[in-house]
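Take a specimen:
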Amino acid sequence: MPTKEPVKGMRDILPDEMRLRNDVLAAMRNVYGSFGFEQIETPCMERIENLQSNQGGDNEKLVFKVLKRGEKLAKAVQTSRVDELSDAGMRYDLTVPLARYYARNSEKLPLPFKAMQIGPVWRADNPQQGRYRQFYQADIDILGDESPNAEIELVCATSLFLKQMGIAHRVRINDRRLLAALAATCGFEADRYSDVFVVMDKLDKIGVDGVCGELRSIGCTEESVDTYRRILEDFGEAPDKLAYCERALSAHVEAATLESLRAIESGVTALTRGACVPRLDLSLVRGMGYYTGTIFEVESPEFGSSIAGGGRYDRMVGEFAGKSVPACGFSVGFERIIQVLLEKAQTEESEDRIAVLYERGQTIEQITRLQEEYQPLREAGKTVLLQKKARNFARQKERLAAAGYGQIIVAHDDSAKG
């Protein structure tokens, strides 16, 4: 028997939210387009070997696998091997598909290539409040530019978009090479860096004491842990963060890494006229293992966590293309932004949204004349909804007001309702 409920972890989107989503997407395309980003589209499914290529971090554990079809499926079933049943999967992000896309189409694309991708992704995650198995991602990436200008444009474009959305924000930056220098200075074992970074990434959640405790629990020496704590404390007190890193990590950090971070900080500050000043944060890790250089996150006081983030991933595209291709990208937490804007919009109505209600019993000719009367307002950019007046007029007005209609007019009645 059919059911009206959607698949677990997925949801229907009602018109008021859909309208907002379209407005946000339009603003995003406009802002990113002004920086020269061009929109592309990749398939919702990717070959399973691409989704399990050890480039997607923990997301690879959350792939929705797609069964083989027909004879191929029947043959796979006979082998009794589960890993033979699938040859494709739903994409869990937009970065791996972009790397494949560029490797396949690079000869047809400009260099550097500035890509904008907006679309749904799927993760077989445990659904909970605010977390779904299908959700939208919005990414911008620059491929083929190894200079800090890529990071500067990515951060500035995203900052401008958030400003237009009325979302206060700040940008934190770091560099995976700087993290490696920190780990080396502390004396952590080189073959344990990935484990150390996983623990460091929990700093915001469990604090310095919690991180130090976990580092000890995975076998790090007391001396290394104490050095890590001291460097974090001194870094926090330092007026010039980059200058401190240059002194404290000098034996293990290259000058080019610090110069790149300095250039990004000054470039973003200048391009945004001081509206966005990136802040170096030595505690920023970002868990995706494919990052090779700069990493960044955007925070907002209106959210409980970051709303955007990204970094440089110079090796991923090369895995597909067979040659080195520098790449850097930024992903915006589209669903989180929508949720906050929806909460703001609940108390807002727009005078540009007009509901015209006609009395019951009107002929199609009378209704058509009403359409003609209000068509000039639509052509002027306003929204005009033509609707039959309900018997429960009060309830109808409530629903229209909730949908953002600032004007509610009963046709052939001189009094405007609402």
In short: Residues 180 and 193 are 7 Å apart (CA to CA). The longest helix spans residues 15-34. Confidence is low (pLDDT under 50) at residues 413-418.
